[in-house]
Amino acid sequence: MDALGVWTTSWARVVFIESSKFWFYSLVFSLLGTGWQMLWICGRTEEMKPNASAESTKLGEKEPEAPSPGAKRSSQDARDEPESGPEDEALAVERYHTLVKNLIIQGCDILIPGSLVGWIDASPLVVSTATVASTILVGIDRWTTVRKQNQR
To answer: What is the rounded CA–CA span in Å between residue 61 and residue 46?
Structure first.
């Protein structure tokens, strides 16, 4: 109501600034979470590579003995080893690309509240360009999702 000039208040500006700060903080934590997920995926794909046992033998560690063909594996052994199929690695790469796109979107979005509060020195042209880029990237994702749902 205050932004439209219908009913003005003295506290509207303070609430607007504080809400922009809260928005900024939420985007910072979102960026940190996305970065953490990217690191986790990178570490997970390193575990899934088949050359991991070859590297450990180079360091002087004993290579684990292969069980005999008739031996049963314990449930603990099955939980310790990561599943390393090509599908798993392809899914990890796809997820990583999605996280990179989300990182770009969040990086563009953080310019809006950061410039409103004055914590990020960006011109209106830079902020509006980043907003358009973010909107286009999100729109592409949404249309892809809708198209996939309609093909089912």
So the answer is: 18
Joined tokens for residue 102 = 């989300």
Q: Which domain holds residue 34?
A: 12-45+85-151
Nearest to 49 by CA among 5, 15, 10, 93: 93
> CA 5, CA 24: separation in Å to the nearest integer?
26
User: pTM for this structure?
Assistant: 0.68
Question: Tokens for 21?
Answer: 């700060």
Question: How many domains does one find in the chain?
Answer: 1
- Sign (positive or negative) of CA dihedral 114, 119, 124, 130: negative
Half-sphere exposure of 88 (CA within 13 A, CB side): 13
pLDDT tens, position by position, 47-58: 666 654 445 444
